[in-house]
Amino acid sequence: MRMAFDPTILVQYWPLFLQGAWLTIQVSVQAFLLGYTLGIAVALLGLMPGRLPRLAATSYVEVLRAIPFIIILFVIYYGLPFSGLRLPAPLVGTVALGLFASAYYAEIVRAGILALPRGQFESARAIGMSPLQAMRHIVGPQVARAIVPPSTNMTLTMIKESAVLSSITVPELTYQGLVVQGNTFAPFEVFAAVTLIYWGITIAVAGAARRLERRLGVAQARGVSRNRLAASYLLLERERAR
Amino acid sequence: MSFQFAYLAGLMPNLAVAALVNLRLSAMIIVLALIGGTALTILRSLKIRPVNALIAFLISFIRGTPLLIQIFLFYYVLPAIGLDLSPTVAGVAAIALNSSIFISETMRGALITLDPGQIEAATALSLPRHLVWAKVILPQLFRRVLPVLVNEATIVVKGTALLSVITVVDVLRTAQQIASASYRPFETLIGAALVFLAINLTISLLGRRIEGRFAVQRA
């Protein structure tokens, strides 16, 4: 049993952690772009008139959301060579992560569009806005306000899910952590470092999203003033004085 | 090589047996997480400053790091500080802790939708604090968070697939073992995917049924 924290391991291996973290960020950004593009396409497909497009969109979303990401990843990673296509693991991992996220983004976009009161676009056109102006000033901001908070949540989930790419040897942060762990047998130091880096990344993304939300004017938490008695049960934090 | 449906059909019984492992672990985790999440919520409502600060730190940590890393922490790090857990116990503990935190956060959101008048009424009847929770708040709270709990159950089921990485022999690991013997990874992994698809679609369907029944009761 070893209790002492040995920082020399981190000093010695920091380039690996840095490379891993950088790849995690790159993979996440690419998967986000791919996932959101696909998500919008699937959402629009689901909103098209007719039963078939809607069925296709619903099946896509339901199937991808019911299967663990690690299995989606393995099916694609081992299935592609099966059909004669050999691609590098980081590419396969990024595409799989994007596909996985696209199912959730599709639901978010769909709900955001459906939440828009009917006739907003037509009203904007009626008071003389061009279609572009109507999208930019009336419809766009309202949809954005509805979809940014859940999209942030999903993006954080996706970044965290990228750790699973380590299991198909994509040398991202978790993989590098396991490599260092195999070399040093110092799990405490290694996982402390890996954990802190993930935590830093997610906190940074969450902070950026909060700033975006404030700019878009997403409704702040309702400051329902409650009586002290009810608050002693129904609120889990002390109310901050303003 | 071509995709062989006969081979896929042949291995489904094996995978179904392995699925019992995922189902059993998931059931344990969900029960633990529901108890843990409820206890955390009640504890937080007491607003003891150092306790809540500690819980806030834990929430930020659990929400800010991958579940896979949390599983590794329980599996690799706890033995290093003298607590040797079997892969199954470490995995169940890691996912249950993760899920407790998410359930407690859901409950936090649902609590403020309850009617404060009921708390006043209960207190006016001099109901002791534990009975206000047990008789007034929790029954309504559980009903309100039920849709999220159903969703959380599917997340837990998916989470158990990660336990294959720390050598728990579940559906995924069984599929991998079969694949490494037969050199047919595509069919076996599709089989594993179908197992999870069946489990989670069933949970969603049951969840919608139960919600429907509650809605009728409330009306």
TrEMBL record, chain B:
Domain of life: Bacteria
GO biological process, alphabetically ordered: amino acid transport
GO cellular component: ATP-binding cassette (ABC) transporter complex
MF GO annotations: transmembrane transporter activity
Statement: the UniProt record of this protein carries the keyword NAD: no
Alphabetical list of Gene3D superfamilies matching this protein: MetI-like
Residue spans crossing the bilayer: 28-46, 53-78, 84-103, 145-169, 189-207
CDD domains, per the entry: TM_PBP2 (cd06261)
Signal peptide: none
Topology class, membrane: Multi-pass membrane protein
The ABC transmembrane type-1 domain, residue ranges: 19-207
Subcellular location: Cell inner membrane; Cell membrane
Keywords associated with the record: Amino-acid transport, Cell membrane, Membrane, Transmembrane, Transmembrane helix, Transport
Family listed: Belongs to the binding-protein-dependent transport system permease family. HisMQ subfamily.
NCBIfam families: HEQRo_perm_3TM
Protein name, as recorded: Amino acid ABC transporter permease
Organism this protein belongs to: Methylobacterium nonmethylotrophicum
